[in-house]
Amino acid sequence: MSLEKPTPDTAAEVGVTEDGLDYDALADLLGGHVLDREEHVNAEGFVIRPDEVQAVLSTLKNEAGFDHCACVTAQEYDDRYESIYHLRKFDDPTQELSVIVPSPKDDPHNESAARVYSTADWHEREAYDLVGINYDDHPDLRRILLPETWQGHPLSQDFNQDQPQIVTLRENANPLEADHRSEDDSDTMFVNIGPHHPATHGVLHVKTVLDGEQIADLEPDIGYLHRCEEQMCQQGTYRHQIMPYPDRWDYVSAGILNEWAYARAAEDLADIEVPEYAQVIRTMSAELCRIAAHMLALGTFALDVFGDFTAIFQYAFRDREVVQNILEDLTGQRLMFNYLRLGGVAWDLPEPREEFFEKTRDFLDDLPHKLEEYHDLITGNEIFQMRCVDTGVLSPEEAKQYGATGPVARGSGVDYDLRRDDPYGYYDELDWNVVTEEGGDNFSRVLVRMREVEESARIIEQCIDLLEQWPEDEREIQANVPRTLRPDPDTEIYRAVEGAKGELGIYIRSDGTDKPARFKIRSPCFSNLQTLPEMSQGEYVPDMVASLGSLDIVLGEVDR
Amino acid sequence: MIGILKSMATTMKHALDGETFTVEYPDVAPEVSPRFRGVHKWSQERCIWCRQCENVCPNNTIQIVMDDQRNGEQYNLHIGQCIYCRLCEEVCPTDAILLTQNFEFTADTKDEFAYDKEQLKNVPWYKDIDPLESREPDRGAWIGEGDGEVDYQ
Amino acid sequence: MQSAPLPETLANLVGLDPNSTPVMILMSLVGAALIGTLMMTNTALAGPWAKRKITAAFTDRIAVNRIGPYGLFIIVADAVRLLSKELIVPDGVDRPAWDLAPLVIASTALLGFAVVPMGSGIHLADPEVGLAYVFATASMASVGLVMAGYASNNKYSFLGGLRAVAQNVAYEIPLILTGASVVIFTGSLQMSEIVAAQQQTLIGPLPSWYAFVNPFAFVLFMIANLAEVGRNPFDIPEAPTEIVAGYQTEYSSVYFVLVYLGEFIHIFLGGAIIATIFLGGPAGPGPASLGIVWFFIKIWGVFLFTQWARSAVPRVRIDQLIEIGWKGMLVLSLANLLLTAVIVGVIA
């Protein structure tokens, strides 16, 4: 079957057995470093000393093959602080391990993991910013989401929410002050690209130092769209109140994919079995969302490279409109779907079903022709090739190092797709391919998205066939779920799905109430954006803008 | 060069075929799906003041005031703050609150969006679509209880 | 089609002596005002209305249609809107230069039309160095761009100004060299001579327009002209997604209108040059009095072409632009010039 991935040579990796991971072997590898072992729903967790993080993680990375640091979750308990490093493997993401680093309540200090996994840089900065854990030996421990002048750490227990956070303008960093940042080096010029700039796809601020028109140094500054999404989810009930919010993380039509991330994590946490029919509907609607999201990515990328209001942007929007009409028929909303429910979906297909099938089929039938048109307009255009081939190159090693996932990683030849590697929904029953391109440049990333649209269309087509033939009395859209969900106290889970931009993971810790005690979102855009400096060092400004476009970030998801 | 000419030919084809995909909105009322979630309509006759909608609302958009005999006095809903998730309609046991297809609402200030009982009653149907008929809500499964103990939260 | 230049016609029309200098000065001013108004009208039509309609056609949209027939009155609405906006003068701009730049950009392009024969007797002056004069005025606009870029005290404007200079220097030379290849055919820089030389027929019904005589030069000129007027794929001095709006970032209200106007007049001037030296000027079927109609059809054709290119051709990068200019266009235009010279020399 096409879904099978070439089996990696895992013989050298410690702890890999025929039927999954052997945690005892891993514990032996680490020996005395492991203080305690915990059981999480998705993997086992090893508790280690806060000053041995680098040693443990580099052993795990080099000898046990954990090359993907998916997420760093920090939280405060009554008696301690805790950082959890969710490790998995790009070759087989079902092999997971959580490394738990407790640190004392009065003076929370950890060793930083940023020297082992580059991606931990930003994740730890976020943990420092929101929870207040200090990471020693971190290359640049500053606030990342909140302004520099913020007082306190909002997710720590002693944070006073009523404390005013008003800071006079004088105390804030003045962007113009850094105007002549390198006075001894008069050949460079400091330019603020954003937060108000036509090409930043939202409110992103990129601090750039230019040498002529080439980029000498670059640093993305995020947090302008931080809306406390994690805290909002912590204040909602599992059963009802969290589901509307995932739509608002990646708000450009990837809603159902985001909802699925929460649904998957919460269902595994509370052990809810989803009916097969609902899984097929979920798969179909998620792939429709993926098409809509990729269309938008394509259109805005064209906007960045072609100039203002090109035809391609409008054509992409026109086609996305068709998808959104279908989704509106199905879910009742065009962007903020709120369609998935724990244990199923909110609605069966709209009646008359034939009409819905026909509408979807018409769209799928038109799609190859439309993609042909895009290839004529975009990939076949010599000037476009001139602009995009071999610019913004991201090598596969760097992609892994920065935890890049989704089309960005696949454009660099990293064969990683959770739909196949960590199957959920109905994906493993269907016939489709994971798309990769070897180039690693802007062109490859665009090409990956265009080809993924084709694959998504294949998936939808098979789902439609299945749904059409589904016997009428077995159309169960919703499992029987208690009205108020109260998962067992201190159950922890990290689960991810393949969102439109990459691995969208959710970490939930329950405390026995009907609301999560800690809700952490692993946003793919957050990790992908970290690769921007790597991609655009030494490139021209237009190429940096193109790379940013090809990363396809949504600031709502980066800042959460 | 051929690629560029091909691109230009493609856009020219679009320019000449005269087709447009935008609509002249106020003149041409857009088609809205039967399931579309717009402004709420509320029915005092049906409402039993069970406060489930107020309870389930993710961002406290619904505010209900009752007197000490549990008679309903006020039902306020801020349609500018609402995120149109339809959970209130889903939990309502009597279909007293419904989301109409009506998506057109304007006001000069945000305060005017805080609708009270009377305003909610008078929200018009969009194109006379009654959402109840068209949505055929599958309530059984959703409202049904799980295996665990019954919880009337 | 050797009609008398416009001031003489006007003098005869009102019955004054065309040989007296004060009368001629007065009539020249009247003629200049007439031509200026004509071009401004065109620009007004093109900027707020035609451009929107054309872009909409390429992108499957409807565009302005609510005010007046086909939305034409949007021109008035836009004019009022733009003129009534606040003129924001940022801190630290280099005042006289910043204020003058929009004027320079708008007026230099208008100056070029003085020597362009528009047909139907509308031809203000016909100096012997006509073509050279047109090129000279057209390139003066880059002075305005640099002024705007430097004086704005904004890094994006600065980058845009630098890009504009680099681009104009790189593409002016191929432009003029290709124009010179036409001069080799006619043996004169005088605009009326160039138009007159295209009156014969080439083969069958095809007139001997230089676009048909030397299509290669025509294509070269069209491409170089795109760069000269700063349109896709060469719109990098503005490049909205890269450097916000380039040299015009800091301009608002009336100044912005002037900059914008200047750009459009510049496109039309480019069209006028192309029409005159490659497309037979005002030549076309029907009586000679229809000349102006044909002339405008031709310059609008060129305008349409720039919009078409804008809809489908990506912007090139600055280094690629310079490379194409110096290593491609310059070499090709030199080759074209030499070849034309040799062929004309052999035939003559």
Verbal overview:
- The complex is a heterotrimer of chains A (560), B (153) and C (348).
- Chain A is of the alpha+beta class.
- Among the domains of chain A are: 16-136, 2-Layer Sandwich (Beta Polymerase, domain 2), CATH 3.30.460; 252-486, Orthogonal Bundle (Cytochrome-c3 Hydrogenase, chain B), CATH 1.10.645.
- Chain A contains 17 helices and 17 strands.
- In chain A, the strands form six sheets. Chain A has a five-stranded mixed sheet, covered by helices on one side. A three-stranded antiparallel sheet of chain A has the order 10-11-12.
- The radius of gyration of chain A is 23 Å and the shape is globular.
- The model of chain A has no long low-confidence stretch (mean pLDDT 85).
- Chain B has one domain: Alpha-Beta Plaits (2-Layer Sandwich), CATH 3.30.70.
- Chain B is elongated and about 80 Å long.
- Mean pLDDT of chain B is 78; it is low at 137-153.
- Chain C is built from 13 helices and two strands; from the N terminus they run αααααααββαααααα.
- The longest helix of chain C has 38 residues, at 21-58.
- Chains in contact: A-B, A-C, B-C.
- The A-B interface holds A 236, 240-245, 248, 311, 315, 318, 321, 325, 328-333, 336, 338, 341, 344, 346-348, 350-351, 373, 376-378, 380-385, 476-478, 480-484, 514 and B 1-4, 6-7, 9-11, 14, 21, 32-37, 56, 58, 83-87, 90-91, 135-138, 141-142, 144-148, 150-151, 153.
Topology, pairings included?
The complex is a heterotrimer of chains A (560), B (153) and C (348).
Chain A (H helix, E strand, L loop, with lengths): L15 E2 L2 E2 L1 H8 L3 E6 L4 E5 L4 H11 L4 E9 L3 E9 L7 E9 L4 E3 L8 H11 L3 E3 L51 E6 L11 E7 L2 E8 L7 H6 L20 H16 L5 H31 L4 H21 L8 E2 L2 E2 L7 H27 L2 H7 L7 H6 L4 H6 L6 H4 L20 H28 L22 E7 L4 E8 L5 E7 L1 H6 L2 H5 L4 H11 L3 H5 L1
Parallel strand pairs in A: 4-7, 8-9
Antiparallel strand pairs in A: 1-2, 3-4, 5-6, 6-7, 10-11, 11-12, 13-14, 15-16, 16-17
Helix pairs in contact in A: 5-6, 6-7, 6-13, 6-16, 7-8, 8-13, 13-16
Chain B lengths: L1 H16 L22 E3 L9 H5 L5 E5 L5 E7 L8 H5 L5 E3 L14 E2 L1 H5 L9 H5 L3 H5 L10
Chain C lengths: L5 H9 L6 H38 L15 H10 L11 H18 L17 H22 L3 H32 L4 H7 L3 E3 L2 E2 L2 H4 L1 H15 L10 H4 L9 H26 L12 H22 L5 H30 L1
Antiparallel strand pairs in C: 1-2
Protein name (chain B): (4Fe-4S)-binding protein
InterPro entries (chain B): 4Fe4S_Fe-S-bd, 4Fe4S_Fe_S_CS, NADH_quinone_OxRdtase_chainI
Organism (chain B): Haloarcula pellucida
